[in-house]
Automatic annotation (TrEMBL):
Protein name, per record: Cytochrome C
The keyword Nucleus is annotated on this UniProt entry: no
Pfam families, per the entry: DUF2231, Fn3_assoc, PSCyt1
Keyword Metal-binding listed: yes
Keywords linked to the UniProt accession: Heme, Iron, Membrane, Metal-binding, Transmembrane, Transmembrane helix
Species classification: Bacteria, Pseudomonadati, Bacteroidota, Cytophagia, Cytophagales
Cytochrome c domain boundaries: 179-279
């Protein structure tokens, strides 16, 4: 070793004792300057160096007194250098860790153990460096210290991993619960919580509470964090959880932060719809309506998680050309699982179905394990063709014409385990005996099959070992809530007038509406009769009512009049990089942007500017008489989306000979202003024009009450209306 360099490094190591000791003693009073915070965040990068250096050194130290190693000066000096470098880098890592731990959001048991085991690693490495040259430092002590250091490194790494990746990160695949059956699955526990644990809990757990937000249990999730509630039940567009996920990934408020695993489209959809469904912590998936978006996606994800039961089938793979030949316009044939010879068959064209179509499958009858005939006009006699599929274990006969009499044809099918009979017309008498004749049947679905609750209870008692899934039975004591009304118009933007088309998927529903901004009720509000004609901008508030049902939530529909549509339009200034939409065409394409950040309309229909004015020029082949201009904009103060500071409307009959027609300053929202999609604009003296220029200036400085105060606001607009 270079004695001069060694001396300097030893002095640095000695000085580090005092500095680390000072930091630990006065840690509670430390205020880390802003300039040192980046140094603290390098902790997670640097910590790999002492781990590698010390593990290698401990391996060499363990064998130090073996054979020729104890007399090999190069071996001994290299080990000494490794230990010194490991001790120095661990000292720096400890210092950086102390700085990092002073940032908000860190705490708990994992941090405690990670901190003190890290300090112990640093001290033991330093101690080993000083004592390993002593005469009394012999083989047994060398092995003990080497093993102790290795264990310390493993433990400090484990608790550090818990801080960055969440508890049980290493053992998670082994500890993960098995897939939950659909009928037992809870929306929050089995679908929402796993998403939070996978993508959010690493930063929001008892040991690392970023933003004072804890996401490990329902009570903490409902409580929210430093910036307030995590969600507004029923209103995903106002919920911080959804808003943050939809920010640009470059935005510092985007969650999960850049560098962390991001939410998939399905996960984001699931979180959004869960909030829309009032963010229940106890609701089951099967409690949701069969056509509910949350239920459909939940069913898909649960099925994906459980996957088909892939077995080691003892039959050969079907001929590929035969499978292709049998797949056609009324029937699909696909692999039941990857790398499996088993096949799944689905009939989907009701008009094309005939019983002999089943017989056509005889060439692959030995490979079919799943068959769906749902909603086909299947008769009892057709089941004789089904029985030839010797390896069939799943049969879907939902909404067919089979009865308990025809089910006797399935007797003796040894591998049939799941039978779906929902929506059929069954009688309790004889059904149990038909099911018992299928020796290995495990589950049968009979909801909406003409069986009473008592019938299903009796059937379950008779079919020991077979799960009977009966679904929801309405006894009148638990009325259901209606879905909100729907608008049927292809577009709610019109020229001269429009007849509003409102509807509801349930027959016999009465739609009540108001046009004055009041909430519709079931007694005084007007009944929609299909003849509501509109000739100006109108907001319709609606609710659905039906005897025996709970009235729906309110649904509002905005209709906009845009009499003149330009023949061409061009932008003279660039749009914001992430809000391009369809360029100048965006403002006159009849496609409205959405509140819902999970909708394609959020990303595709909003055009915006931040760092420059929006300057749009439109042209008409024939002159028009213009008296008003309106812009449909977005206001979402939480994410820095504000109305423009000023809008100017210019007109001309000759190109570039502009005349100012109007200018207006929209009101700037106050703190806690709700998320809205307002119209802003002005009416002015009618002017003949062939060219219209719109100049919209984004808000130069966001108000002082906002976290982004004094920064430029984002301005978003989806449609412009000329009248």
């Amino acid at each position: 070793m270079n004695s001069k360099l060694t001396g300097i490094l030893e002095q640095i190591l000695l000085a580090s004792f005092f500095f680390v000791g000072f930091l630990l003693v006065f840690e509670g009073d430390l205020q880390i300057p802003l300039v040192l915070q980046p140094l603290g965040r390098l902790h997670t990068l640097l910590l790999h160096f002492p781990i590698v250096l010390l593990l290698l050194a401990m391996f060499m130290e363990f064998f130090r007194f073996h054979g020729s190693f104890q007399k090999n000066n190069t071996y001994l000096q290299f080990t000494q250098w490794l230990i010194l470098a490991g001790a120095l880098s661990s000292a720096l890592t400890v210092i950086m860790g102390i700085f990092l731990a002073k940032e908000p959001g860190y705490g708990g048991g994992d941090l405690f153990w990670h901190r003190w085991l890290g300090v112990a690693t640093y001290l033991l490495a330093s101690l080993m460096y000083w004592i390993r040259s002593k005469d009394w430092y012999q083989s047994s002590l060398s092995k003990i210290t080497s093993i102790s250091m290795s264990l310390l490194l493993i433990l400090v790494g484990h608790f550090g991993g818990n801080l960055t990746h969440g508890g049980n990160f290493v053992l998670e695949p082994l500890l993960k619960n098995k897939a939950v059956p659909l009928e037992e699955a809870l929306v929050f526990q089995d679908l929402i919580q796993p998403i939070l644990e996978k993508k959010c809990v690493t930063c929001h757990n008892p040991d690392k509470i970023k933003g004072e937000l804890l996401l490990t249990d329902a009570k903490s999730i409902a409580k929210g964090g430093k910036t307030g509630p995590l969600y507004v039940a029923g209103k995903s567009e106002l919920s911080l959880l959804i808003q943050r996920a939809h920010l640009s990934i470059d935005d510092k408020k985007h969650m999960p932060p850049i560098g962390k695993p991001q939410l998939s489209d399905d996960e984001l959809q699931l979180l959004t719809w869960w909030v829309k469904e009032k963010a229940s912590f106890t609701k089951k998936v099967v409690d949701l309506a069969s056509n509910d978006s949350l239920r459909i996606l939940s069913t898909k994800l649960l099925a994906s998680a459980s996957g088909p039961q892939v077995e080691a089938y003892d039959f050969q793979e079907a001929d590929e050309k035969t499978v292709q030949k049998l797949s056609n316009e009324y029937r699909t044939i696909m692999l039941f699982a990857k790398d499996s010879p088993a096949l799944s068959v689905n009939f989907f064209n009701k008009a094309q179905y005939k019983a002999p179509k089943l017989e056509e499958l005889k060439e692959i009858k030995g490979q079919i394990v799943s068959l769906s005939l749902a909603k086909m006009p299947v008769q009892n006699a057709d089941l004789a063709f089904v029985k030839v599929f010797e390896h069939l274990h799943t049969l879907n006969l939902n909404f067919t014409d089979v009865t308990e009499v025809g089910l006797k044809e399935l007797a003796g099918m040894k591998e049939l385990m799941v039978l779906s009979l929902s929506g059929t017309k069954l009688k309790a008498a004889g059904l149990a005996s038909a099911m018992k004749a299928i020796p290995n049947l495990k589950k049968v679905y009979v909801w909406d099959a003409g069986l009473s609750r008592e019938d299903i209870q009796v059937l379950q008692k008779q079919l020991r070992g077979i799960q009977v899934v009966g679904g929801f039975q309405d006894d009148g004591s638990n009325p259901l809530k209606l879905n909100p009304p729907q608008v049927k118009n292809p577009s709610t933007i019109f020229d001269e007038y429009i007849v509003a088309q409102l509807g509801h998927p349930i027959k016999g529903v009465e739609i009540r509406y108001t046009l004055d901004g009041s909430v519709p009720d079931s007694a005084k509000s007007a009944i929609f009769a299909g003849n509501l004609r509109l000739n100006q901008n109108t907001s319709i508030r609606t609710r659905a009512f039906k005897s025996g049902w709970i009235g729906s939530e309110e649904a509002s529909f905005d209709f906009y009049r845009g009499h003149f549509r330009p023949d061409s339009a061009v932008l003279l200034t660039p749009l914001n990089r992430v809000h391009q939409a369809a360029g100048a065409k965006t403002f006159f394409d009849g496609r409205l942007g959405s509140f819902n950040a999970n909708s394609p309309a959020w990303a595709n229909n909003w055009a915006g500017v931040r760092n420059n004015d929006l300057v749009l020029v439109t042209m008409f082949k024939q002159a028009i008489l213009l008296s008003s201009v309106e812009l449909r904009i977005m206001v979402e103060t939480q994410t820095g989306i504000f109305p423009p500071e000023l809008v100017e409307v210019w007109g001309a009959t000759v190109e570039n000979q502009w005349k100012l027609l109007s200018k207006f300053k929209p009101a700037i929202p106050k703190e806690n202003f709700p998320h809205t999609l307002p119209l802003i604009g002005a009416k002015f003296k009618a002017s003949t024009v062939k060219y219209i220029k719109i100049v919209a200036k984004p808000l130069e400085k966001i108000p002082g009450w906002h976290p982004a105060k004094d920064k430029r606001a984002l301005f978003l607009v989806d449609e412009m209306f000329f009248n």
